[in-house]
Design goal:
19% strand; two-stranded antiparallel sheet; elongated; alpha+beta; BirA Bifunctional Protein, domain 2; binds phenylalanine; 9 strands; 7-stranded mixed sheet
Length: 341
């Protein structure tokens, strides 16, 4: 009987020369070398007779042989599997499958808003939908007993009053300011949640887009100019805007902005309740308390912020009269937006 070492060397030489011409030959290789009745397995049987002092060396050689054979088998069977796949499963001459469906109107408008503000140099920021009290309220200057913290508005998670679904995208302002990289010019589009009864005008989940600009010497005039640009880009070049004084804990001064009704052009109709104006957003100069809570020196820096509901402006733009339509996935509604980008 040949010594084991010679047998291993001979087999190794054999398998290294192996070059399969077909799938069948790969299978023959497997049967001849790798199967239970194969030559390598037989050598493992012989191994039992090897004297203990040679076992270590022989064991190593044997394993090397086995691994090499496996590697050659894998490589060659892969090559043929790929080939077969190509021939039998993908027929590139078939016509493409028709994809039905389109973008949701909220996505269309969100993209549109992103591109309007990106043209002004804003970049998109994101934050978590599950927030803590600090980012959603405290840093934004909400007094301890402010009604917005109340169970009626906020969805709390679990028993802790510190973990809740964000009620507005203003929480993203705080997260960006905290990072301390100035100046800041961001928009933050995203979902928000409020514990409200669902109706044609309100929903417990909706989308907002927040804007924040912080630098040295930012003024209310900058805010007006930005929002004026946005209104004309979004609703059309004839659009007029007006500001009314308002209150938000996190801005001082605060305002609400109306746009001229794009349905009647300001003459008066049932959409604008015959006033010619529709309220679309809240805005103001960032309250110094908010800047300080986020580690920004309010003597050196100032900024403005604004926030609006995406559903609301989408309803105005496309004359949709029921907010619930956005969440029901009724194809008859969604199909009407197929043609828009
Ligand atoms: N966060 C406010 C809201 O949800 C909107 C807002 C944002 C107002 C930024 C002023 C500045 O109603």
């Amino acid at each position: 009987m040949l010594p084991m070492k010679t047998k291993i060397a001979a087999l190794l030489a054999d398998i290294q020369q192996f070059q399969a011409q077909s799938k069948e030959q790969v299978e023959e290789f497997r049967l001849k070398y790798l199967s239970k009745k194969g030559l390598i397995h037989a050598l493992f049987d012989d191994f039992k007779q090897v004297p203990p002092e040679n076992r270590k060396e022989m064991g190593m050689l044997l394993n090397e042989l086995k691994n090499k054979a496996q590697e050659i088998f894998d490589r060659q069977s892969d090559a043929f599997a790929g080939d077969q796949h190509h021939v039998s499963q993908i027929d590139t001459s078939l016509p493409a499958v028709e994809v039905s469906g389109g973008r949701h109107p909220i996505s269309i408008v969100r993209r549109n808003l992103n591109s309007i503000f990106e043209r002004l140099g804003f970049i998109i920021a994101e934050g978590p939908e599950i927030e803590d009290d600090f980012h959603n309220f405290t840093a934004l200057n909400f007094p301890e007993e402010h009604p917005a913290r109340d169970m009626q508005d906020t969805f709390f998670i679990g028993k802790s009053p510190d973990v809740a679904l964000r009620t507005h995208t203003s929480s993203v302002q705080v997260r960006v300011m905290e990072q301390g990289k100035l100046p800041i010019r961001i928009i933050a589009p995203g979902r928000v949640f409020r514990n409200e009864a669902i109706s044609a005008r309100a929903h417990c989940i909706f989308h907002q887009i927040e804007g924040l600009y912080i630098d040295k010497e930012v003024s209310f005039a900058d805010l007006k100019q930005t929002l004026y640009f946005f209104a004309r880009e979004f609703f059309g070049p004839e659009t007029r805007i007006r500001f009314r004084p308002s209150y938000f804990p996190f801005t001082e001064i605060s305002a609400e902005m109306d746009v001229s009704c794009n349905i009647c052009g300001g003459k008066g109709c049932n959409i604008c309740k015959y006033s010619g104006w529709v309220e679309i957003l809240g805005c103001g100069m960032v309250d110094p308390n908010v800047l300080e809570a986020c580690g920004i020196d309010s003597k050196e820096y100032s900024g403005y912020a604004f926030g609006m509901g995406i559903e609301r402006i989408t309803m105005m733009k496309y004359q949709i009269n029921d907010l619930r339509l956005f969440f029901e996935n009724d194809l008859r509604f969604l199909k009407q937006f197929d043609q828009l980008v």
